[in-house]
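thread from #wetlab-drylab

HS: before we spend reagent money on co-crystallization trials with adenosine-5'-triphosphate, can we at least see a predicted complex? here's what I'd submit
DV: go for it
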Amino acid sequence: MKKAVGRVLSSSGEYHWDRVEITLYKNERVYRGEYLYVEVDGKRVFLQVEINPIKRPTSSYDEKLTRDGLVNRDEEREVWKASCWQVGYEEDGTIQPYLFPIPPLCEVYRPEPRELENFLTPLEPSITVGRIYPTDAPLKLGLKTLVRQGLLDCGGEGTGKTTLLLTILMALMEQTPRDQPIHVMVIDWDGEFNVPELVDAAKKKGGYLRLEAPMRFKKELKITPKEFYERVRRYLGLAPNSREARKLNAVLMRMRDQAIDWNRETYLNLISQIDDPAVESKLREQVDIIFPPQSEEGWDIRELVQENALVHLDFSNAENWDEIILTSRDALDICYHEARTNPRFGVIVVIDEVHNFAPQNIYEAPASKEAYESMVPVMKLLATTGPRNKIPLFVATQRLSEVEKVVSTQMGQNIFAFRVEDIDLERLRGIMGDIASAVRMLPRGHALFKGHAVKVRTPIISVIDKLAEPASVHKDLLSAWRRG
Ligand SMILES: Nc1ncnc2c1ncn2[C@@H]1O[C@H](COP(=O)(O)OP(=O)(O)OP(=O)(O)O)[C@@H](O)[C@H]1O
Ligand SMILES: [Mg+2]
Protein backbone atom coordinates (compact mmCIF):
# COMPACT_ATOMS: atom_id res chain seq x y z
CA MET A 1 0.00 0.00 0.00
CA LYS A 2 1.22 3.47 -0.75
CA LYS A 3 2.09 5.48 2.29
CA ALA A 4 1.97 9.26 2.55
CA VAL A 5 5.04 11.17 3.75
CA GLY A 6 3.20 14.40 4.46
CA ARG A 7 0.72 16.94 3.17
CA VAL A 8 0.76 20.06 1.07
CA LEU A 9 0.73 22.99 3.50
CA SER A 10 2.08 26.42 2.77
CA SER A 11 3.23 28.67 5.60
CA SER A 12 2.25 31.79 3.65
CA GLY A 13 -1.27 30.41 3.16
CA GLU A 14 -1.07 30.73 -0.63
CA TYR A 15 -1.05 27.83 -3.03
CA HIS A 16 0.52 27.81 -6.49
CA TRP A 17 0.81 25.34 -9.34
CA ASP A 18 4.58 25.35 -9.78
CA ARG A 19 5.89 25.76 -6.23
CA VAL A 20 4.60 23.34 -3.63
CA GLU A 21 5.39 23.43 0.07
CA ILE A 22 5.03 20.27 2.08
CA THR A 23 4.86 19.57 5.77
CA LEU A 24 6.14 16.11 6.55
CA TYR A 25 4.59 13.71 8.98
CA LYS A 26 6.58 13.02 12.11
CA ASN A 27 9.64 10.83 11.47
CA GLU A 28 9.30 11.09 7.69
CA ARG A 29 12.34 12.27 5.76
CA VAL A 30 12.80 13.40 2.18
CA TYR A 31 16.07 14.33 0.51
CA ARG A 32 16.99 17.09 -1.92
CA GLY A 33 16.27 16.12 -5.49
CA GLU A 34 13.84 13.35 -4.50
CA TYR A 35 10.72 12.76 -6.59
CA LEU A 36 7.35 12.66 -4.78
CA TYR A 37 3.80 12.89 -6.03
CA VAL A 38 0.29 14.08 -5.19
CA GLU A 39 -2.98 12.95 -6.68
CA VAL A 40 -5.22 15.72 -8.00
CA ASP A 41 -8.09 15.55 -10.51
CA GLY A 42 -7.33 11.88 -11.03
CA LYS A 43 -3.81 12.72 -12.12
CA ARG A 44 -0.58 11.73 -10.49
CA VAL A 45 1.38 14.99 -10.37
CA PHE A 46 5.07 14.56 -9.59
CA LEU A 47 7.07 17.02 -7.52
CA GLN A 48 10.80 17.34 -6.96
CA VAL A 49 12.20 18.40 -3.60
CA GLU A 50 14.35 21.47 -3.97
CA ILE A 51 15.11 22.16 -0.32
CA ASN A 52 14.14 20.27 2.82
CA PRO A 53 14.54 22.51 5.86
CA ILE A 54 13.46 21.96 9.44
CA LYS A 55 11.37 24.78 10.85
CA ARG A 56 11.54 25.72 14.48
CA PRO A 57 10.44 29.17 15.58
CA THR A 58 13.30 30.85 17.44
CA SER A 59 12.24 32.72 20.59
CA SER A 60 13.99 35.90 21.59
CA TYR A 61 15.58 34.20 24.61
CA ASP A 62 16.62 31.00 22.76
CA GLU A 63 20.06 32.28 21.96
CA LYS A 64 20.78 33.24 25.50
CA LEU A 65 19.45 29.95 26.87
CA THR A 66 21.52 28.01 24.36
CA ARG A 67 24.63 29.96 25.30
CA ASP A 68 24.09 29.21 28.93
CA GLY A 69 23.49 25.53 28.25
CA LEU A 70 19.93 25.69 29.48
CA VAL A 71 17.98 24.31 26.52
CA ASN A 72 17.54 20.80 25.21
CA ARG A 73 16.32 19.88 21.80
CA ASP A 74 12.55 19.53 21.84
CA GLU A 75 11.52 17.65 18.77
CA GLU A 76 7.90 18.56 19.39
CA ARG A 77 8.73 22.11 18.38
CA GLU A 78 10.28 21.05 15.08
CA VAL A 79 8.46 20.77 11.79
CA TRP A 80 10.16 19.10 8.84
CA LYS A 81 9.38 20.75 5.55
CA ALA A 82 10.04 20.26 1.88
CA SER A 83 9.85 22.91 -0.77
CA CYS A 84 9.22 21.40 -4.19
CA TRP A 85 8.90 22.26 -7.84
CA GLN A 86 6.19 20.66 -9.86
CA VAL A 87 7.54 18.21 -12.44
CA GLY A 88 4.19 17.36 -14.04
CA TYR A 89 2.05 14.34 -14.85
CA GLU A 90 2.41 11.77 -17.55
CA GLU A 91 0.11 11.61 -20.51
CA ASP A 92 0.79 9.34 -23.49
CA GLY A 93 4.46 9.03 -22.69
CA THR A 94 5.16 12.74 -22.29
CA ILE A 95 5.17 14.92 -19.20
CA GLN A 96 2.55 17.65 -19.00
CA PRO A 97 2.36 20.47 -16.47
CA TYR A 98 -0.66 20.59 -14.18
CA LEU A 99 -1.69 24.21 -14.47
CA PHE A 100 -3.97 24.63 -11.45
CA PRO A 101 -2.76 25.18 -7.90
CA ILE A 102 -2.01 22.05 -5.94
CA PRO A 103 -4.65 22.39 -3.19
CA PRO A 104 -3.94 22.54 0.53
CA LEU A 105 -3.62 19.35 2.54
CA CYS A 106 -3.32 16.97 -0.42
CA GLU A 107 -1.42 13.94 0.76
CA VAL A 108 2.07 13.55 -0.68
CA TYR A 109 3.46 10.13 -1.57
CA ARG A 110 6.81 8.62 -2.33
CA PRO A 111 6.73 6.58 -5.56
CA GLU A 112 7.82 2.96 -5.52
CA PRO A 113 11.14 2.47 -7.37
CA ARG A 114 9.21 0.80 -10.19
CA GLU A 115 6.79 3.73 -10.47
CA LEU A 116 9.67 6.18 -10.50
CA GLU A 117 11.37 4.22 -13.24
CA ASN A 118 8.21 4.21 -15.34
CA PHE A 119 7.75 7.92 -14.86
CA LEU A 120 11.31 8.83 -15.92
CA THR A 121 12.13 6.24 -18.58
CA PRO A 122 11.44 7.26 -22.17
CA LEU A 123 9.27 5.04 -24.33
CA GLU A 124 12.00 4.58 -26.95
CA PRO A 125 14.62 1.80 -26.56
CA SER A 126 17.08 2.79 -23.87
CA ILE A 127 20.32 1.88 -22.15
CA THR A 128 20.83 1.62 -18.41
CA VAL A 129 23.79 3.55 -17.04
CA GLY A 130 23.08 3.75 -13.32
CA ARG A 131 20.53 3.85 -10.53
CA ILE A 132 18.17 6.60 -9.49
CA TYR A 133 19.47 7.62 -6.09
CA PRO A 134 18.72 6.32 -3.47
CA THR A 135 16.64 3.53 -5.00
CA ASP A 136 17.73 0.57 -7.05
CA ALA A 137 15.54 1.74 -9.94
CA PRO A 138 17.59 1.90 -13.14
CA LEU A 139 18.40 5.20 -14.81
CA LYS A 140 17.63 4.57 -18.46
CA LEU A 141 18.54 6.91 -21.28
CA GLY A 142 16.75 6.96 -24.61
CA LEU A 143 19.18 5.67 -27.18
CA LYS A 144 17.80 7.52 -30.15
CA THR A 145 17.80 10.84 -28.33
CA LEU A 146 21.27 10.27 -26.99
CA VAL A 147 22.81 9.61 -30.40
CA ARG A 148 20.90 12.48 -31.92
CA GLN A 149 22.11 14.97 -29.32
CA GLY A 150 25.33 13.73 -27.77
CA LEU A 151 26.42 13.86 -24.17
CA LEU A 152 28.54 15.97 -21.86
CA ASP A 153 30.11 14.33 -18.80
CA CYS A 154 31.82 16.73 -16.41
CA GLY A 155 33.25 16.55 -12.95
CA GLY A 156 36.32 17.19 -10.82
CA GLU A 157 39.34 14.97 -10.61
CA GLY A 158 38.62 11.36 -9.72
CA THR A 159 34.85 11.78 -9.50
CA GLY A 160 34.00 9.04 -12.00
CA LYS A 161 33.90 10.65 -15.46
CA THR A 162 35.89 8.03 -17.29
CA THR A 163 34.03 5.25 -15.52
CA LEU A 164 30.78 6.77 -16.84
CA LEU A 165 32.13 6.91 -20.41
CA LEU A 166 33.12 3.27 -20.06
CA THR A 167 29.69 2.35 -18.71
CA ILE A 168 28.04 4.08 -21.65
CA LEU A 169 30.36 2.34 -24.11
CA MET A 170 29.67 -1.03 -22.49
CA ALA A 171 25.93 -0.32 -22.57
CA LEU A 172 26.09 0.58 -26.27
CA MET A 173 27.86 -2.69 -26.95
CA GLU A 174 25.82 -4.95 -24.69
CA GLN A 175 22.38 -3.47 -24.27
CA THR A 176 21.43 -2.49 -27.78
CA PRO A 177 19.33 -4.92 -29.85
CA ARG A 178 21.30 -7.63 -31.64
CA ASP A 179 20.21 -6.42 -35.03
CA GLN A 180 21.22 -2.84 -34.24
CA PRO A 181 24.77 -2.19 -35.44
CA ILE A 182 26.78 0.31 -33.40
CA HIS A 183 29.84 2.28 -34.53
CA VAL A 184 31.95 4.20 -32.06
CA MET A 185 35.31 5.91 -32.35
CA VAL A 186 37.17 6.55 -29.11
CA ILE A 187 39.88 9.20 -29.16
CA ASP A 188 42.01 8.09 -26.25
CA TRP A 189 44.95 10.36 -25.50
CA ASP A 190 46.38 8.47 -22.54
CA GLY A 191 45.31 4.86 -22.97
CA GLU A 192 42.45 4.99 -20.43
CA PHE A 193 40.27 2.87 -22.66
CA ASN A 194 42.56 -0.14 -22.82
CA VAL A 195 40.02 -2.06 -20.81
CA PRO A 196 39.60 -5.81 -21.39
CA GLU A 197 35.84 -5.84 -20.68
CA LEU A 198 35.30 -3.17 -23.30
CA VAL A 199 37.41 -4.97 -25.87
CA ASP A 200 35.41 -8.18 -25.35
CA ALA A 201 32.08 -6.39 -25.51
CA ALA A 202 33.04 -4.61 -28.73
CA LYS A 203 34.24 -7.82 -30.33
CA LYS A 204 30.89 -9.43 -29.57
CA LYS A 205 28.98 -6.44 -30.89
CA GLY A 206 30.71 -6.33 -34.26
CA GLY A 207 34.44 -5.86 -33.97
CA TYR A 208 37.16 -4.03 -32.12
CA LEU A 209 40.12 -2.32 -33.72
CA ARG A 210 42.86 -0.51 -31.88
CA LEU A 211 45.25 1.82 -33.67
CA GLU A 212 48.34 2.96 -31.93
CA ALA A 213 50.22 6.22 -32.45
CA PRO A 214 51.84 7.05 -34.77
CA MET A 215 48.86 6.54 -37.05
CA ARG A 216 47.95 8.14 -40.33
CA PHE A 217 44.71 8.42 -42.20
CA LYS A 218 44.10 8.36 -45.88
CA LYS A 219 42.55 11.59 -47.03
CA GLU A 220 41.62 10.82 -50.61
CA LEU A 221 38.50 12.86 -50.67
CA LYS A 222 36.83 14.60 -53.56
CA ILE A 223 35.36 17.87 -52.47
CA THR A 224 34.05 21.03 -54.10
CA PRO A 225 36.37 24.01 -54.53
CA LYS A 226 34.23 25.93 -52.06
CA GLU A 227 34.70 23.19 -49.47
CA PHE A 228 38.41 23.11 -50.22
CA TYR A 229 38.57 26.81 -49.53
CA GLU A 230 36.56 26.48 -46.29
CA ARG A 231 38.78 23.67 -45.05
CA VAL A 232 42.01 25.47 -45.67
CA ARG A 233 40.58 28.50 -43.95
CA ARG A 234 39.46 26.41 -41.00
CA TYR A 235 42.72 24.55 -40.67
CA LEU A 236 44.85 27.69 -40.87
CA GLY A 237 42.47 29.92 -38.96
CA LEU A 238 42.27 32.44 -41.81
CA ALA A 239 39.67 35.20 -41.73
CA PRO A 240 37.60 35.41 -44.95
CA ASN A 241 38.93 38.88 -45.66
CA SER A 242 42.58 37.98 -45.10
CA ARG A 243 44.91 38.28 -48.08
CA GLU A 244 45.65 34.56 -48.07
CA ALA A 245 41.99 33.59 -48.03
CA ARG A 246 41.10 35.98 -50.84
CA LYS A 247 43.98 34.89 -53.07
CA LEU A 248 43.24 31.22 -52.53
CA ASN A 249 39.58 31.79 -53.21
CA ALA A 250 40.41 33.55 -56.47
CA VAL A 251 42.33 30.51 -57.68
CA LEU A 252 39.62 28.09 -56.56
CA MET A 253 36.87 30.12 -58.22
CA ARG A 254 38.42 29.26 -61.55
CA MET A 255 37.74 25.58 -60.95
CA ARG A 256 33.98 26.25 -60.95
CA ASP A 257 32.12 23.30 -59.40
CA GLN A 258 34.42 20.55 -60.49
CA ALA A 259 35.26 18.19 -57.59
CA ILE A 260 38.93 18.16 -56.61
CA ASP A 261 41.15 15.95 -54.47
CA TRP A 262 41.70 16.99 -50.90
CA ASN A 263 45.40 16.26 -50.66
CA ARG A 264 48.81 17.78 -50.36
CA GLU A 265 49.52 17.65 -54.05
CA THR A 266 46.38 19.52 -55.07
CA TYR A 267 47.00 22.10 -52.37
CA LEU A 268 50.57 22.75 -53.52
CA ASN A 269 49.43 22.89 -57.10
CA LEU A 270 46.71 25.41 -56.28
CA ILE A 271 48.85 27.77 -54.31
CA SER A 272 51.50 27.75 -57.04
CA GLN A 273 48.87 29.52 -59.15
CA ILE A 274 48.60 32.41 -56.69
CA ASP A 275 49.89 35.65 -58.23
CA ASP A 276 51.34 37.01 -55.01
CA PRO A 277 54.69 35.45 -54.03
CA ALA A 278 54.45 36.53 -50.39
CA VAL A 279 51.04 34.93 -49.99
CA GLU A 280 52.12 31.86 -51.87
CA SER A 281 55.15 31.23 -49.72
CA LYS A 282 53.18 31.82 -46.56
CA LEU A 283 50.59 29.23 -47.57
CA ARG A 284 53.33 26.85 -48.68
CA GLU A 285 55.03 27.09 -45.29
CA GLN A 286 51.84 25.92 -43.64
CA VAL A 287 51.27 22.85 -45.75
CA ASP A 288 52.34 20.49 -42.94
CA ILE A 289 49.61 21.82 -40.70
CA ILE A 290 46.94 20.86 -43.18
CA PHE A 291 48.57 17.74 -44.56
CA PRO A 292 51.04 16.29 -42.08
CA PRO A 293 53.91 14.69 -44.06
CA GLN A 294 53.04 11.32 -45.56
CA SER A 295 49.42 11.69 -44.63
CA GLU A 296 48.45 10.47 -48.08
CA GLU A 297 49.02 6.87 -47.16
CA GLY A 298 47.55 5.27 -44.14
CA TRP A 299 44.35 3.87 -42.75
CA ASP A 300 40.99 4.47 -44.29
CA ILE A 301 39.23 5.51 -41.12
CA ARG A 302 35.82 5.38 -42.80
CA GLU A 303 36.27 1.74 -43.64
CA LEU A 304 37.57 0.90 -40.17
CA VAL A 305 34.58 2.56 -38.55
CA GLN A 306 32.14 0.75 -40.77
CA GLU A 307 33.77 -2.61 -40.20
CA ASN A 308 33.90 -2.37 -36.41
CA ALA A 309 31.70 -1.63 -33.45
CA LEU A 310 34.57 0.18 -31.78
CA VAL A 311 37.61 1.87 -33.28
CA HIS A 312 40.03 2.79 -30.54
CA LEU A 313 42.59 5.46 -31.41
CA ASP A 314 45.19 5.00 -28.72
CA PHE A 315 47.55 7.95 -28.53
CA SER A 316 49.38 6.90 -25.39
CA ASN A 317 52.54 6.44 -27.49
CA ALA A 318 52.24 9.78 -29.28
CA GLU A 319 55.39 11.89 -29.42
CA ASN A 320 53.64 15.10 -28.49
CA TRP A 321 50.30 16.83 -28.32
CA ASP A 322 50.48 18.25 -31.83
CA GLU A 323 50.53 14.73 -33.15
CA ILE A 324 47.46 13.84 -31.07
CA ILE A 325 45.56 16.93 -32.12
CA LEU A 326 46.40 16.89 -35.82
CA THR A 327 45.76 13.16 -36.19
CA SER A 328 42.45 13.36 -34.32
CA ARG A 329 41.46 16.32 -36.44
CA ASP A 330 42.03 14.26 -39.59
CA ALA A 331 39.98 11.35 -38.27
CA LEU A 332 37.15 13.67 -37.23
CA ASP A 333 37.16 15.67 -40.40
CA ILE A 334 37.13 12.62 -42.63
CA CYS A 335 34.31 11.04 -40.62
CA TYR A 336 32.31 14.26 -40.59
CA HIS A 337 32.57 14.61 -44.33
CA GLU A 338 31.66 10.97 -44.86
CA ALA A 339 28.68 11.19 -42.51
CA ARG A 340 27.36 14.20 -44.40
CA THR A 341 27.71 12.65 -47.82
CA ASN A 342 27.10 8.96 -47.19
CA PRO A 343 23.59 8.23 -45.91
CA ARG A 344 24.73 4.91 -44.43
CA PHE A 345 27.71 6.24 -42.51
CA GLY A 346 27.72 7.61 -38.98
CA VAL A 347 29.80 7.29 -35.84
CA ILE A 348 29.61 8.19 -32.16
CA VAL A 349 32.79 10.04 -31.20
CA VAL A 350 34.00 9.63 -27.62
CA ILE A 351 36.61 12.04 -26.25
CA ASP A 352 37.78 12.12 -22.64
CA GLU A 353 39.28 15.34 -21.23
CA VAL A 354 37.91 17.28 -24.16
CA HIS A 355 39.33 20.60 -22.91
CA ASN A 356 42.64 19.38 -24.31
CA PHE A 357 41.03 19.03 -27.75
CA ALA A 358 38.79 22.11 -27.79
CA PRO A 359 40.30 24.53 -25.29
CA GLN A 360 38.72 27.87 -24.49
CA ASN A 361 42.19 29.42 -24.44
CA ILE A 362 44.52 27.79 -26.95
CA TYR A 363 47.57 29.26 -25.23
CA GLU A 364 46.86 27.38 -22.03
CA ALA A 365 46.38 23.95 -23.61
CA PRO A 366 49.07 21.35 -24.28
CA ALA A 367 49.36 21.47 -28.10
CA SER A 368 50.63 24.37 -30.20
CA LYS A 369 48.59 27.35 -31.23
CA GLU A 370 48.80 26.24 -34.85
CA ALA A 371 47.47 22.78 -34.05
CA TYR A 372 44.50 24.23 -32.17
CA GLU A 373 43.76 26.79 -34.82
CA SER A 374 43.04 23.91 -37.12
CA MET A 375 41.37 21.62 -34.57
CA VAL A 376 39.02 23.98 -32.72
CA PRO A 377 36.91 24.84 -35.80
CA VAL A 378 36.45 21.13 -36.48
CA MET A 379 35.36 20.55 -32.89
CA LYS A 380 32.94 23.48 -33.09
CA LEU A 381 31.51 22.15 -36.30
CA LEU A 382 31.00 18.75 -34.70
CA ALA A 383 29.46 20.18 -31.55
CA THR A 384 27.01 22.32 -33.49
CA THR A 385 26.12 20.18 -36.49
CA GLY A 386 27.65 16.77 -35.77
CA PRO A 387 24.66 15.15 -34.04
CA ARG A 388 22.27 16.07 -36.87
CA ASN A 389 24.78 14.68 -39.34
CA LYS A 390 25.06 11.30 -37.64
CA ILE A 391 28.28 12.08 -35.85
CA PRO A 392 27.45 12.91 -32.22
CA LEU A 393 30.03 13.72 -29.55
CA PHE A 394 30.12 11.97 -26.18
CA VAL A 395 32.68 13.99 -24.28
CA ALA A 396 34.03 14.26 -20.75
CA THR A 397 35.97 17.01 -19.07
CA GLN A 398 37.42 17.86 -15.74
CA ARG A 399 37.54 21.55 -16.55
CA LEU A 400 34.26 22.69 -17.97
CA SER A 401 35.38 26.32 -17.81
CA GLU A 402 38.35 25.48 -20.04
CA VAL A 403 36.28 23.92 -22.81
CA GLU A 404 35.67 26.11 -25.82
CA LYS A 405 32.35 27.82 -25.14
CA VAL A 406 30.52 26.84 -28.30
CA VAL A 407 31.41 23.24 -27.65
CA SER A 408 30.35 23.19 -23.99
CA THR A 409 27.07 25.02 -24.48
CA GLN A 410 26.09 23.06 -27.57
CA MET A 411 26.62 19.84 -25.65
CA GLY A 412 24.19 20.88 -22.95
CA GLN A 413 21.24 18.77 -24.04
CA ASN A 414 22.32 15.75 -22.04
CA ILE A 415 24.63 16.39 -19.13
CA PHE A 416 26.03 14.31 -16.35
CA ALA A 417 27.55 16.51 -13.69
CA PHE A 418 29.70 15.00 -10.97
CA ARG A 419 31.13 17.19 -8.25
CA VAL A 420 32.95 20.08 -9.92
CA GLU A 421 35.34 22.79 -8.75
CA ASP A 422 33.78 26.16 -7.95
CA ILE A 423 35.38 27.75 -10.99
CA ASP A 424 33.57 25.30 -13.25
CA LEU A 425 30.31 25.61 -11.37
CA GLU A 426 29.56 28.95 -13.00
CA ARG A 427 29.72 27.44 -16.48
CA LEU A 428 27.68 24.47 -15.32
CA ARG A 429 25.02 26.81 -13.95
CA GLY A 430 24.89 28.55 -17.31
CA ILE A 431 24.19 25.24 -19.01
CA MET A 432 22.13 23.46 -16.39
CA GLY A 433 20.47 26.16 -14.29
CA ASP A 434 20.67 26.85 -10.56
CA ILE A 435 20.26 23.22 -9.66
CA ALA A 436 23.91 22.82 -10.61
CA SER A 437 24.93 24.00 -7.14
CA ALA A 438 23.64 20.69 -5.79
CA VAL A 439 26.58 18.86 -7.39
CA ARG A 440 28.98 20.36 -4.88
CA MET A 441 27.86 17.75 -2.38
CA LEU A 442 27.94 14.63 -4.54
CA PRO A 443 30.25 11.77 -3.56
CA ARG A 444 32.30 9.83 -6.12
CA GLY A 445 30.30 7.93 -8.71
CA HIS A 446 27.21 10.10 -8.07
CA ALA A 447 26.10 12.54 -10.73
CA LEU A 448 23.24 14.83 -11.54
CA PHE A 449 21.75 13.96 -14.91
CA LYS A 450 19.71 16.49 -16.81
CA GLY A 451 18.65 16.06 -20.38
CA HIS A 452 16.30 15.04 -23.12
CA ALA A 453 17.18 11.35 -22.96
CA VAL A 454 14.69 10.92 -20.09
CA LYS A 455 11.07 12.05 -19.98
CA VAL A 456 11.50 14.88 -17.49
CA ARG A 457 13.47 18.10 -17.83
CA THR A 458 14.23 18.17 -14.12
CA PRO A 459 17.55 16.77 -12.90
CA ILE A 460 17.96 13.26 -11.53
CA ILE A 461 20.51 12.28 -8.92
CA SER A 462 22.05 9.05 -10.10
CA VAL A 463 24.66 6.55 -9.06
CA ILE A 464 26.62 5.34 -12.05
CA ASP A 465 26.97 1.59 -12.56
CA LYS A 466 30.62 0.72 -12.57
CA LEU A 467 31.05 -1.98 -15.20
CA ALA A 468 34.78 -1.65 -15.77
CA GLU A 469 37.78 0.10 -14.32
CA PRO A 470 39.60 2.81 -16.36
CA ALA A 471 43.11 1.66 -17.27
CA SER A 472 44.78 4.46 -15.29
CA VAL A 473 43.48 3.23 -11.98
CA HIS A 474 46.53 1.08 -11.28
CA LYS A 475 48.99 3.42 -12.96
CA ASP A 476 49.45 5.94 -10.19
CA LEU A 477 52.86 6.86 -8.90
CA LEU A 478 52.70 5.00 -5.63
CA SER A 479 51.61 1.76 -7.33
CA ALA A 480 54.43 2.17 -9.84
CA TRP A 481 57.02 2.45 -7.07
CA ARG A 482 55.56 -0.50 -5.24
CA ARG A 483 55.96 -2.66 -8.31
CA GLY A 484 59.50 -1.44 -8.92
N1 LIG B 1 30.17 4.74 -10.17
C1 LIG B 1 31.23 4.30 -9.50
N2 LIG B 1 31.12 3.32 -8.60
C2 LIG B 1 32.20 2.88 -7.92
N3 LIG B 1 33.45 3.36 -8.08
C3 LIG B 1 33.63 4.33 -8.96
C4 LIG B 1 32.53 4.86 -9.72
N4 LIG B 1 33.01 5.81 -10.52
C5 LIG B 1 34.32 5.88 -10.30
N5 LIG B 1 34.70 5.00 -9.36
C6 LIG B 1 36.09 4.80 -8.90
O1 LIG B 1 36.67 6.06 -8.67
C7 LIG B 1 37.99 6.14 -9.21
C8 LIG B 1 38.09 7.27 -10.22
O2 LIG B 1 37.24 7.01 -11.29
P1 LIG B 1 37.49 7.61 -12.74
O3 LIG B 1 38.88 7.34 -13.18
O4 LIG B 1 36.37 7.18 -13.59
O5 LIG B 1 37.32 9.16 -12.42
P2 LIG B 1 37.70 10.39 -13.35
O6 LIG B 1 36.76 11.47 -12.96
O7 LIG B 1 37.75 9.99 -14.77
O8 LIG B 1 39.16 10.70 -12.80
P3 LIG B 1 40.35 11.55 -13.47
O9 LIG B 1 40.08 12.95 -13.07
O10 LIG B 1 41.55 10.99 -12.81
O11 LIG B 1 40.28 11.32 -14.95
C9 LIG B 1 38.25 4.76 -9.82
O12 LIG B 1 38.97 3.97 -8.91
C10 LIG B 1 36.88 4.18 -10.03
O13 LIG B 1 36.88 2.78 -9.97
MG1 LIG C 1 39.27 10.21 -16.17
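DV: The chain has three domains: 4-111, 126-217+298-483, 222-290.
HS: ok that's useful, forwarding to the group
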